[in-house]
Amino acid sequence: MRRENTKFFARALREVATKVLMVAMVISMAAVAGCSEDPTNGEENKQEQGQGGDYTNGVQLPEESSKKCGPNQSLIKFNIKTSAGYKLEVDNSDMLIVRMNSAADKGGSFSVEVEVTQNKTGAERKGNLFITVNGYSRTKVMEITQTAGATDEVVKWVDQRLQDEYYWLDEYKEKLNTFDYTLAYDKFLSTSLLSMTTNMEDGYVSGGTRYLYSYITRESATRADDDRMENSFGILIAGRYFGGSNNTAIFVVEHVYPGSPAANAGLKRGDTISKVDGNTIPTPYVNGVYNEANAIQFATQRSKLESGTGSITIEGETYDKQTQKDIVYRKSLTAADYLPSPVAHYTVLEFDEAVAKVINPDGKKIGYLSYLGFESEYDAELIEAMEYLAAKGITDLILDLRVNGGGSVNTSTMLGSMLLSEEYVGKTYATLKRNPKNKLFPAEYLNDDCLITKNGLGDELAFKDLPNLDLPELWVIASNSTASASEMVIKGLEGLDVPVHIVGKTTNGKNCGMDVMEKTFGSYIYTYAPITFMNFNAKGDNDYADGIKPQVNFDDYWNESNIQSSYQTYQCYVFPMPMNEWAELNIEINENGGMSFSGDFILLETVSNIGRGKSMLKNSSAASELGFKPTEMMTTRAAEAKMVYDANIIPQNRAYGATLTEAEREALRANRE
């Protein structure tokens, strides 16, 4: 779903520009409950109808002579007082039904209830309520106006699923008549959910703006049958960017997919891109202020790089290891098919004898796996990586989830299963709990247990024996982009009393997930994923909406005032900005025992904690013990003024999620039976 998620990202940027409008909408909507008094109802009108305790034609009328209602079914309640028996009538029986005290044989005080039926006409409609008191002429009690309901079939689908399945469906249903059903499907979803207050765990805040996890995307119904292949350039852009001169941005390459046009052209992780087809990239923030026009161009350029077709020319800088300098490059790429596997890199880390004595004195066999997303289409590649690491007999594993925003719950369950030994098979990895009022599932399937499994999940993998690493503990590289199904791995193992050590920054805090559905309308296939469940581990822990804090927290070490003078603090500051290729360490020990280093600092920090049980960060004794000294290669970018880091964080290129498709739900339930 990479293409759709890139569109989600672009749309999220545009939505920021309407945040002031949305706040105003939230405030105004909060005052509406089903139907509201028509603002044209003035004091003069009240007096004409004998308000304020006076009787008109034998009845003391309600203060409000007109109401305006939303398109969904609602109930209007009011009190009347009559001097004799009466009868209530309506002039639009398709719209209005008197449900309580429609008539009485004698006078008195009465509570009246009038049902306003759902408006399915696609247009605004009106109805009037009249009363006839015995011995008097007929009098109009109230004029009721009802706004048009949804006419767009996609909006109807979005709305119905939220009513039936959304985890916070209670508040959603209470607010039904406050929503604007004339909006486009994606705008309807965002404005409706952003108007709510009970659903704060559906989303995250970046740059003072709230973004939703729930999403809907669309693609052509004529999409390729092979969902595993992609036709583009093979570039994944980092979720953060550098600020250039004259309000321009500089993209950094997060990953280059093997076999893609970008890989064949020599582009690599950590390279920068400053121009696309000769055009600079505008920064979404100018002097710290959001600029909508710039943000749209920024999103367009990024989308072109990640999911564009045809041909493209890019310019930027790449690090030359021989000269230890950044050099300018210009490359022309033509889109082609490639396999965008989220298994970015896996290996067993190796050290020469001198380095091993310092950094890994006990000779631990440390495996490394960089994983970009829990995409079930590539489960075979994930299993292959784990089989390799198991065959190598690793004693420890560094699972790099620094940019993994989540994905399939079943893939997360399989990964958790492969990290452990077979003795855990059948134990609870996670429990997915839905709203008790969820209409999609019968009671026995309202909550789903994800169990540690011996075999793969799904038709193609059901008879595939999974490898087992039998790890006593797990080391995870994480950032605030680590979310959902990634956090499920951490919490899932902790729930089974397997220690998990996190190095990096606090995770995103997505403790919820989505039941994903696809539906075709016209010439498009829509993929819709509202939040429908909460994720709990075997110990019932779900309390990580603010993220999971690391044991080694880079946020505790960086100091903005000296990021140009200390590479270590600079690395802590910009993390998870890619500065090196995956698993790149490049450690050298000089004759005096001092260490020079030109690789991925967070990986070095993690290796040091595994191999030596000590940190490499400068305020620890460990750093001075080793005489840590960065080489010229590792300081060049930190020293260049034009590479000043922009503190504004742009949302992930993919939507965060812990997702279950209909097929995956069936496989999950088959595993527990």
Highlighted features:
alpha+beta; Immunoglobulin-like; 2-enoyl-CoA Hydratase, Chain A, domain 1; 673 residues; Pdz3 Domain; eight-stranded antiparallel sheet; six-stranded mixed sheet
Show the helix and strand layout.
Elements: H1 2-16, H2 19-29, E1 35-37, H3 43-48, E2 59-60, E3 66-69, E4 74-82, E5 86-90, E6 96-100, E7 103-104, E8 108-116, E9 125-133, E10 139-146, H4 153-165, H5 169-174, H6 185-194, E11 204-206, E12 209-211, E13 215-220, E14 230-232, E15 235-237, E16 242-243, E17 248-256, H7 261-264, E18 272-273, E19 275-276, E20 279-282, E21 285-286, E22 289-290, H8 292-307, E23 311-320, E24 325-334, E25 336-338, E26 343-348, H9 353-359, E27 366-371, H10 379-391, E28 396-400, E29 406-408, H11 409-419, E30 428-434, E31 447-451, E32 474-478, H12 485-494, E33 500-504, E34 512-515, E35 517-521, E36 524-529, E37 531-536, E38 552-553, H13 567-574, E39 587-589, E40 595-597, H14 601-611, H15 621-626, E41 629-630, H16 632-639, E42 657-660, H17 662-672
Parallel strand pairs: 3-10, 27-28, 28-32, 29-42, 32-33, 33-38, 34-42, 40-41
Antiparallel strand pairs: 1-3, 2-4, 4-8, 5-7, 5-9, 6-8, 9-10, 11-12, 13-36, 14-25, 15-17, 16-17, 17-18, 17-20, 19-20, 19-23, 21-22, 23-24, 26-27, 30-31, 30-37, 34-37, 35-36, 39-40
